[in-house]
Amino acid sequence: MSTDTLATAASTGAAGADAVVELEDVVRVYPGHPPVRALRGLSLRIDRGELVGIVGPSGAGKSTLLHILGTLDQADSGTVHIDGHDVGAMNDRQLSALRAHRIGFVFQQFFLNPGVSALDNVADGLLYTGAPLARRRRRARTTLERVGLGNRMHHRTNELSGGQRQRVAVARAVAGRPSMLLADEPTGALDSASGAGVLDLLHELHSAGTTVVVITPDHDVADSLPRQVHILDGRIEHDERRTR
Amino acid sequence: MTGPKPNGRAGAPTPSRLRPRDVLRVAASGLRARPLRAVLSALGIAVGIAAMVAVVGISASSREEVTEQLEALGTNLLTVAPGQTLGGQQATLPEGSVDMVARVGPVTSVSAVGEVDASVYRSAEIEETHTNGLTVLATRTDLLDTVGGTVSSGRWLDDALAGYPTVVLGANAAERLGVSRTDGTVSVWLGDEWFTVVGTLDPVPLAPELDSAVLIGWPAAMEVLGFDGAPTTIYERSPESAVAAVRDVLPATVNPSSPEEVTVSRPSDALAAQAATDETLTTLLLALGGVALLVGGIGVANTMVIAVLERRSEIGLRRALGATRAHVRRQFLGESVLLAGLGGVGGAVLGGGLTAAFASTRGWPLALPAWVLAAAAGATIVVGALAGAYPAARAARMSPTTALSAP
Ligand SMILES: Nc1ncnc2c1ncn2[C@@H]1O[C@H](COP(=O)(O)OP(=O)(O)O)[C@@H](O)[C@H]1O
Ligand SMILES: [Mg+2]
């Protein structure tokens, strides 16, 4: 792969001392009849180490935004810099490299492999880094211990509760120590107690230095976060920081 | 333009990478998730490969059998028979022709039979018109050594027996007449007289005409049945190196005045040719096996297309974990090749087993050329790759977000 391109992409990034995310005037239109303007000129900067909540009603464009932050989707116009790289100038291999090493995802539906152990699910988070299996499992073990599932490692994920499953998914996302963890309604499928547990885990990861972006439709949840970005109709309605 | 940003981890991330061993692991785990489906779709391939391996194996074993047989029988036997006269009538061999053949330098042994105009029956009561396709041959006592025949039961004609009304039956003749006892208690009605059965023969591969013949001594044929003493087939052996030369001189030796009325043939050629005609059938069966393999391949392709549709969210997840399009393609291609390979191994084992079983029931040597197994392995890899190409490309082309939003 052309690492030159990546280096160039990194160096031409808009200035920003320690930005993990820099969006400028991002537009995303889903083609169709009529086309859906999911993001309508959205600008956002997230610094290293932040814990950000994306809040807004259903259909506001939150998931679309998260996909663009995670380089799973591309903006139709505007510029996107993730971890210093100009995403618009990168090819599939370079974007995949970014996802493999710098971005962790957590989804509402967990997306775990039910047939294998929690340990192997987490180890698969490192599959595309090219690390050998033994090292992937070693890292998975320490990460599972970190999320409080040290005693469930060898259970299949269909033997775990919803809250435990989402913890496994979080462990998979952070096993590779990404620059940024993206979570799309991670508590959406959980009861409030398990949801609170997963949220606590995100807070812990944040305290330990991980940049976390979490989508939540729940204002109470959002209120517990140090920064809330409110989205409505593909635009930022307001962006508030709580000072502790 | 500023230099690289002072981000903690700026700079190019290491490319994502899926180790070859992990391609195999991922492909295998995909199959393990639905074992029944994997087995069923591998079965189609297995049937095709088994058919092809068995067809080639069985025909190779049969050819090996012929080769071994020819080695044991020798390929140096020539037969001399009368052809047709210029006028289109059945020619005859001169009476002294056997001795003339014996005088040819390289000839090591020579013998002859002469067809006798008589019919043979199990009893005297059977009507004369009820023929049974058996020929009566006046036979020199040295015939058996020359043609490489063996006695199945009883004894062969010797100089003493040759003058009496005794018979030795060819293998088919014994069966058709229903004779199994050769202790002198069974007789057959031949011409106008009872002939005692003194022996039966095993089938004679180089002279199959003897199998359906009833053999009597030369003197007995002349005295009892009025045989004219003219040989109808002369059998001759010479060293392998001299066969061609002997073949060339035989017609003129046997019938100096009209050599064109003499037909010389080499029975081992007929045996080899028979093995060769089997190849047409082999090719046909092989083509059928190929069709089965093709159908199996379509089954694998179908399974893979369904797998890709069902596993969209898995594909989306893998892309989120850092899989490139190429990694996704490799995963599904690997799964397809593995699936076909599974069928290939199963089919090779099955085909080998069929070959062994068939060969052993026939008493043939087992011959399964290594190239067959190599070709089977190659065929399954090709079929798997072809079957998986489209579904894998489709999986790779899928956009990660569409894949993730799949129900
Ligand atoms: N793949 C798609 N094709 C067409 N429209 C889409 C697609 N994905 C999302 N949308 C539309 O874009 C808008 C924003 O969707 P989304 O980002 O999922 O919102 P949220 O996550 O805030 O609920 C919605 O109106 C949705 O219907
Ligand atoms: Mg959403």
TrEMBL record, chain A:
It holds the Pfam family ABC_tran. GO terms for molecular function: ATP binding; ATP hydrolysis activity; transmembrane transporter activity. It comes from the Bacteria. Signal peptide: none annotated. Gene3D superfamilies: P-loop containing nucleotide triphosphate hydrolases. It comes from Jiangella asiatica. This is ABC transporter ATP-binding protein. The keyword RNA-binding does not apply. InterPro entries: AAA+_ATPase (IPR003593), ABC_transporter-like_ATP-bd (IPR003439), ABC_transporter-like_CS (IPR017871), ABC_transpr_LolD-like (IPR015854), MacB-like_ATP-bd (IPR017911), P-loop_NTPase (IPR027417). SMART domains: AAA. Residues 21-244 form the ABC transporter domain. One of its GO terms (cellular component) is membrane protein complex. Keywords: ATP-binding, Nucleotide-binding, Transport.
From TrEMBL, chain B:
GO terms for cellular component: plasma membrane. Pfam families: FtsX, MacB_PCD. The chain crosses the membrane at residues 38-60, 284-309, 337-358, 370-390. Keywords: Cell membrane, Membrane, Transmembrane, Transmembrane helix. Residues 39-248 form the MacB-like periplasmic core domain. One of its GO terms (molecular function) is transmembrane transporter activity. Its main location: membrane. It is a multi-pass membrane protein. Belongs to the ABC-4 integral membrane protein family. This is ABC transporter permease. It comes from Jiangella asiatica. The lineage of its organism: Bacteria, Bacillati, Actinomycetota, Actinomycetes, Jiangellales.
